[in-house]
Amino acid sequence: YRIGDWRQTVGAGLGDLEPRLLALVLAELRRDLESRKHYNRYLYRKHSQFWEAKAADFAKTAEDVLAKHKDSARSMKYIAEYFWNGLERRGRAIEIMFVALKDGLLDDNGQARLVDWLHDDQVKRYAESIAILEGLIERHPLTMHYRHELITAYHRTARGTQRDELLEETDKLFRDGGRWTEDNLSQLAWCMHKNALHEETI
Fold this sequence. Notes:
This protein is mainly α. It contains 11 helices and no strands.
């Protein structure tokens, strides 16, 4: 924290200290990504003290680590998270996760995270989430979260018939099974509300 504060105070006037400081920061970033353990990321994570001028260097280091650990599911997800949250390079984070999915490295939790990113308000790539969500529901039919995300994806991609069929199926499945809990009901109602399906919400 103190180094980040000092660098921010000094600004562009680091002089000969800049390459030495950068080497230290990149070494720490590499340790972070390779060990999948971070302590503080003040200089290399988007934050008030982020070293914006070195964002490309941070991304290159992350790519180098990724290339060496492309067969590790945990590393792929961890580095994708860094691109998403640390560098706010949303497109690259999603690309990494899709590669992991293609290579059979993404478990269901990882696939759910990819769906969350695809549905993010700054991304809105709903069509690409549909096949993932259909698979998740096939494996976890009673997880309401997956169902309301798929209803959203159908709605946002103008697949009204599929949306309505899934909504009807979900209503019947949860009512008939005695699973119409307050939590499940509120999740589905919120889905209807955010998609402006007001009649269905009522």
